[in-house]
Amino acid sequence: MLWITGLNPAESKSDPVSCRLWTEPQMPRLYKTGDFVMGGIFAIHYYMRSEQNTYTRQPLQPQCSGRELRFARAMEFTIHEINNRTDLLPGITLGYQIHDSCSEVPMAVKVAFQFANGMEPFFSDTDSCSKSASAAVPALVGETASTPSITMTRMLGLFGIPQVSHYATCACLSDKRQYPAFFRTIPSDHHQAAALAKIVRHFDWTWIGAVRSDTAYGNNGMASFLKAAEELGICVEYSEVFYRTEPRSKVERVADVIRRSTARVIVAFVHEGELKLLLEELTRQPPPPLQWIGSEAWIIDPEFLRFNMCAGAIGFGIPRSVIPGLREFLLDLSPEQALKSPLLTEFWESSFSCSLKGSSGGARECDGSEDIRALQNPYTETSQLRVTNMVYKAAYAIAHAIHGVICNDTQCDKSAKFTPWQV
Known about the structure:
16 strands; globular
């Protein structure tokens, strides 16, 4: 479906074999050319719009909605910062290809193939082996979630392409026999699960309920928690699982279990998307007061402050950090710059409910009075840089690795040839 190649039957055996991709490549949402190009993949959008395939034509390009732009732009900022340094990769310009996974496995798979193969639509057997065997990127930052990361690293690991995730916490990814090319700048959930169990035991909450996302993150994280809880003498009344794309009736059933239960403490190992659906359902017919114990995916998300039933929730968050210059970089965005990128155009128009000149939006035309510094949204909120700092560290980790391969004590060789596995 994604990168299947086709042979031209009109070609005779004496002619070169020519192959072409059966589908259009997924273009990067942000990009910059350079001597070496670093890959990046983030859940810039949250939801992929479903489409009923007829199998009589090629599927359309996936369409996404929702948006988390700051992680992608943080990687962009980090590479610009590295390029301005004289002690790291001196004389070398790093580029980037930053893609949107839409937090979905099919999108992540397609981008993984592109990181391995590049985006050339045609291939001929006259191309040199070195060209066909070289990866499009020496390493990449991402993905945001564990399930897409697992899928990607299973493929990219075959080619030795390192993947450094900023937010994939599943303990399963620590298995170097299965995932030899996977690295991360955030701790494994093995530690978080044990710590959450100790919190519950500390307050003598020995009768609890549990809910989790039906993903590698939720299932593995909850399995680790339940094992630790059992060892500490904590009893679990129920353990429910669901996913945001399942029928609404599944979420309603989970909410009914919570309402009918006698446990007033709930441990939630869930993604933001699943918890939002569950809380909205519970709000329709609120249960008695609950004590929520949350995983890092949602416990520090200000989105959930609007749900009164989450007041007093306890969990572990990623430490706050400061990245000098990042806020100025994010706010240094004009309408003219936004028009150069469809992603930034989308951000600008949705933030100010207007249409930039030259775009195809149907809203009123932006008149120049829009002030990005006056916005109050996740993009401009830089007072608590938590996961963003993990992106920053991941990009720097890759840059230092490339430096170690192509640089000596005095200079770097921009013409150096190396395999991703050396990184």
